[in-house]
Amino acid sequence: MKAPGLTRHYPTLTEAERLALLLAASARGDEPEEHRLLSTAPKVTYRVPHTFGRLLALHEVMSYHRMKHLELASLYLWTLGMADGADKVSERFFAIARKFGYLLTAHAGGWARFREWLGVDTSSLESSLPGAEIIGQAAGLAATIAAAEAGVLEWARRSDPAVEIRTAETTAADLRAMYDALVALWH
């Protein structure tokens, strides 16, 4: 059956069926199909507090930050664990671990700057989320075994002189841009 024939049935799809079809269309990069599925979906109205958009934006930005923070912590700890030896391979892993330690620290600094810009303290919430202990352990090690920004930049520019590395400032700017874009969806 051709797409136009199926499209006439789209208004009768359940939420679960529509979600499954949307995810399948997205996975195969079928934007016209995604548009058809969304445009034929029944519309609903909700009443929410005026802070809802900002809370939702903060939740999404914090979720992204947390996943990135856990990724960097795991890469840092993994490479540090691989550096447990006295051979050349271990020395190379240790050098890489120090670079991940820098990125972990820069990411945490960017989050702190973002929270400061936003004027919120999410630390009590973050401490209750999964992964808080591992992030804390990685951050504690990185405080003493992380490369400095200049060293990471010098190392990265050996292979690409134009490369830019992540800093606390660039991370904070990206988080602010993500937050602002999400808040704008509600205004």
Question: Could you describe the 3D structure shown?
Answer:
This protein is mainly α and 187 residues long. The chain folds into 2 domains: 3-39, no CATH class; 52-184, no CATH class. Helix content is 70%, strand content 0%. It has helices at residues 3-7, 15-27, 31-39, 52-82, 88-118, 123-127, 132-142, 149-157, 168-184. Helix 4 packs across helix 7 (132-142).
Question: Which features characterize this protein?
Answer:
elongated, 9 helices, 2 domains, mainly alpha, single chain, 187 residues
Q: Tally of extended strands?
A: 0
Quaternary structure annotation: single chain
Radius of gyration (Å): 22 Å
Structural class call reads: mainly alpha
Instruction: State the end-to-end distance.
Output: 40 Å
Summarize the structure.
This protein is mainly α and 187 residues long. The protein is built from nine helices and no strands. The chain folds into two domains: 37 residues, no CATH class; 133 residues, no CATH class.
Write the layout of secondary structure elements.
Elements: H1 3-7, H2 15-27, H3 31-39, H4 52-82, H5 88-118, H6 123-127, H7 132-142, H8 149-157, H9 168-184
